[in-house]
User: Fold this.
Amino acid sequence: MDHSKNTQENTTTLTTIRGMRDILPDETPLWARLEQVARDIFGRYGYRELRTPILEKSGLFARAVGETTDIVEKEMYTFADRNGDSLTLRPEGTASVVRSFIEHGMDRQLPWRVFYMGPMFRYERPQKGRYRQFHQIGCELFGPATAVADAEVMSMVMSYLRAVGVSSQLTLEINSLGCPSCRPAFRQSLTDYFSALKSNLCEDCQRRLERNPLRILDCKQEQCRELSRNSPHTGQHLCGGCEEHFTSVRGFLDGLSQPYQVNNHLMRGLDYYTRTAFEVTTLQLGAQNTVAAGGRYDQLVADMGGPATPAVGFAMGVERLALLLAGQDTVKPPLVYVATLGPAAVLLGLQLAEALRGCGVGVELALAGGSLKSQMKKADRCGAAHTVILGDEEATHRTLLIREMATGEQRRLDYQEGLHFLAAGFGMGGMVP
Ligand code: HAM
Assistant:
């Protein structure tokens, strides 16, 4: 064994990897709520949870997301496993869901509606709202090709955002990206437009011009973004079918009184979209302003070797939602603090704490002992409504000295009475064993 390496590792400070972070206990109640509301809301629309592996074969993403996308070209965490197989930490969820749809023959169960949540990985430049490990909550619907399906999916996203309390700060932007019959004309007009400006494009985009000019519209470099603002847009090239579909989507959103903005320049960073694409943006997160994004991808299942099946979906960035809601969900304080003075009171304290928890009451038991003063300080700090003070006398007579923290009022009750009093105070009196 190479001990020198071990010693060296032990002396360097251990921290998380750049762009990855711990979600600390102060933040997890908000995260748990974001997840719970997703289960509730998406459940009402008939979506059920799918959990796919975080690691997939690398080829999956090149095929689904697109060889020329930033995600596949620059951002994937790809490595060989011990067998030499190339694996990738998933950079997004749709590719895995489509793989799963095909692998399990879910075309026999259409419409197939699933939601998923969990970490995704992209080697991007970290900044506020942009991380290398981030979390998405997403939904995918397989089967219907209709405009009403797109409208329902967008309405579901907005219902979710309303339910978690962020909708008033958000804008729903929509566009149609066309289909294989109108895409070639759009692509050609982009090639013509950008060819004339080639020398002003960044190096990557000069390359993209040859391979996939649509990707220029998604470039993050300011000089390219500037040129894209005046470029031809999808709206000028839609075929009759796509035009009709987009009109119909807008009609349904209008009929639901769901506000939206048509943004003809909206382009997605993944290749699989057809027809409807949308993003939900906020003015409150600076550059990383998209909290949810998605659209229709009618060719992807067939492109990945499955039976031709239209589909539509979206994903939301949980970190971005959490930033918008920061500080709104705080930890519930324990309702009762149990202070113990002297060894005889410890067992009584332990029994009382367990009995109260059995009645549904949150309890913090003083596990480290200490003076009454220091324990009362801790009781104060944890925000308990009542503190039970147990010393020798209480242990001998099995009584409880209960102090109401807000008023300082104290009462002495016998053990059973005290248990009833504390549990009843929280509406649980009837449950005392
Ligand atoms: P996306 O636009 O790449 O789409 O990501 C969706 C959302 O994930 C973004 O709008 C953002 O909120 C969040 N997100 C993306 N990258 C990061 C990052 N580095 N740090 C923090 N948050 C991030 C997709 O992934 C598609 N699979 C969505 C979809 C589902 N389309 C159809 N179905």
Q: What stands out?
A: The first strand starts at residue 48 and ends at 49. Confidence is low (pLDDT under 50) at residues 427-433. The pocket of histidyl-adenosine monophosphate is lined by residues 92-94, 122, 124, 129-131, 134, 136, 138, 140, 269-270, 290-295, 313-317, 319-320 (CB under 6 Å).
